[in-house]
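Data card: per-record layout.
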Amino acid sequence: MALMEVHYSSFAMGGNVTLNVFVPTPGSSEAITDMNTVKKYDYESGLPVLYLLHGAFGDAFSWLRYSNIDRYAQDRGIVVVMASAENSFYQDLRYGRKYYTFFTEELPRFIQNVFPVSKEREKTYVAGFSMGGYGAWYLGLRRPDIYSKAASMSGAIDIAALEKNRASQDPFMWENSFHDALNSDGSFTLNGSKYDPFTLYDEAVKKGQVPKLYMACGKSDFLYESNLHVKKVMEEKGADLVYKEGEGAHDWNFWDRYIQDILDWLIKD
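The structure for this 269-residue chain is written out next.
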């Protein structure tokens, strides 16, 4: 396996950024022969690639610190790209970095031209947990031309409901992230906006290109009921949705377990 920490200057971010990119390589226990390497390490045609997002207070190193993502991706022959997004909900901030632009335009172009990944939509995926679960669906549904599958774990997907019930000490930059939905009285109209995954799904259907969706949540997670609501809405819309739930809370024990199921789901077709 090859794990690379990459530093480069980003126009979208207005400065230097740090990425962690995992590329599967033949392990010491594998014979370097055509029989054993062509299918799993097809660098010429390009490997499938997953853009893996973090949650609140996280960064490009979260998955490396708290999970076994490198081993899981190695076993399945998939490239994993991890970048930081602060507590931005993966939006273009009014004042600050343009995370949406970075993740949907600049980063994919950079990765495709530097690393042995496929440029095909069918082999390009996005996944994340909590804030990153919202981010995965948001990016996937807003840019279904890039991502063929989007997966959420413990996702903060119903953004309109979550904003209305947010605590006074909320860590998120709501006014900076969702500025186009900010009203003059300080309230938000997120339902029906470009930030609303339900609306983005409907628009993707009209365009005739919709990513396959996955969501998982622990039964003891504080977002469990919210995820059940999202599941109900998406099933009513007829979405191509895989839903999983199990014992667990809003923590790395759950995410480390279910990212393995997500990886299997991503590459099974």
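Known properties of this structure: Residues 142 and 199 are 10 Å apart (CA to CA). The two ends are 24 Å apart (CA to CA).

See the next section for split statistics.
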